[in-house]
Amino acid sequence: NGRRREIVISAKDNKRIAVILAGAKDAAIATLREDGWPQVTVVSYVSDGLALYFICSDESQKAKNLKRDGRMSVAATLPYDRWSEICGLSMAGIAGMAMAATVSAAAAAA
Fold this sequence. Notes:
The protein is α+β, with helices and mostly antiparallel strands.
C-alpha cells in the first residue's frame, strides 16, 4: 500500500543485527531506478550499530537513484565456509547523505 510503517526491534535482535553488520564487510544494496526497476549493487561499508555508511560517486547510478527515492534494501552475510554456517540479514531503510567527517568518524571506529 506504499505506507511507511515503524517496526520495533527487540534489544536482542538489535544486537544480533549489529553483530552481523559489524562482521560483514560487503553488502548488496538495492535501489530503484527511474523506470521503477530495481538495481542491485555490491558495496563495501562500515557500520555503527544499525547505521551503514558507504561511499559512492555523485554520478553513480545508485547515488542518482537514492537522491530521487531514498528507499533501499540491504542484504549481508558473515563470512562462511559451509552452507550450514550461513548467517545473514536482509533489511530495508531510507538512505540519507552523510558529511565526509561523519563517514571518516564511522570508518575510524570500525
